[in-house]
Sequence to fold (309 residues):
Amino acid sequence: MKIVFSGFLVLFCSVIILSSCQSKSSKSEKENIEYIYNDLKPDEFYPAAQVELQINSSGSTMYGFAYTADGKGPHPTIVLLHGLPGNERNLDLAQNLRRAGINVVYFNYRGAWGSKGVFKFKNAIEDAQAVLDYLTDSLNKDRLKVDTGKIAFVGHSMGAGLALIAGLKDSRVKGVFAISVFNPFTLLQGENAEGNLIGLKEYLLSLGMLNCNPNEFLNDILRDINQYNIEKMIANSKKPIMVIDEHMNNSTFTNYNKSKTFEYKIWNTDHAFSNRRIALTKEIVSWMNKDIVSLPQKEEKSSDLKIKK
Fold:
C-alpha cells in the first residue's frame, strides 16, 4: 500500500511540475512575441517615429524613410532592400520589427518609384552602399538612433541578391537575411539562361515605375556576371547569413548548412510569402537577436539595449 501511495505521489508531483513548466513556457513565448499583436506604450522623451529620408547616390536623390524604434537607443538597424520592381515592400515586417526594438530603413533605388537617376543592377548595389554612408554619418546616426555596430541587410527577391552581394563585402553590414534570392549568376547562365533573359526583358518592359532600359539593365548584369557568384560569396563569408527561399533555384546552398554562421531553409509558400508573414517576422527577430543584437557593444554606445524576441 505504501509503495502504491508513493508511486501515486511521485506521479502527481510530476504532473504538477510539468503543468507549471508548460504554463511558464507558454507565458514566456506569449511575452516574447508581444510585438506582433500589442501596441507598446511610447517612451515619453524618445517615442517611435517615421522620418522621411532623401539620400544622395552618385548625384541622384533617392527617397525613403526610417521607422525609428521606441526609446533613446541607439538601436539595431535593418536596411530593407526591395525586389524588382518592389511591389512587395515588406512594410508589415518593418512595423513589427520596429515594435520589437529594431530601426528599419526603407528606400527606393535610383530610377525606381520616383527616386532620381537610372535603374540598373550595378547602380542598385551602389545605392545600398550609399544608404550605409548616410546611416553611418555622425549626424544621421544620432538623429535616427542607429547603432552603427549592429546594421543588417534584409532583402527580398532581387533585393535579397543585392543584400548578399553588397552586404557581404561591406564591413559595416554585420549580417544578411535574404528572402527568395534572385541569383543572376545561376539564372542568367547555363541551359535556362536564354529563356530567363527573354522573360526578364518582357517583364521589365511592363514596369512603368522604373526609369530603366531593359537591354541596358540585362547587359549591365551580364557584363559583370562573374562578380555576382553569390554561392561563392556565402562560402567565403564569416558573417551571419540566413536565406529562406520558396523555390529550388538555390538548392545547392544546403551544402553550407553545416557552417555555424549560415542557415538555409525552403518554405512552402509563394514568392511574396503571403501566408507566412508572421512566421517570417519571428524568424527575422530571432535571427537579429541571436546574431546581430548579441554582438559586443561599441565603447561609445550605451550597454543597456534590449529588444524583445
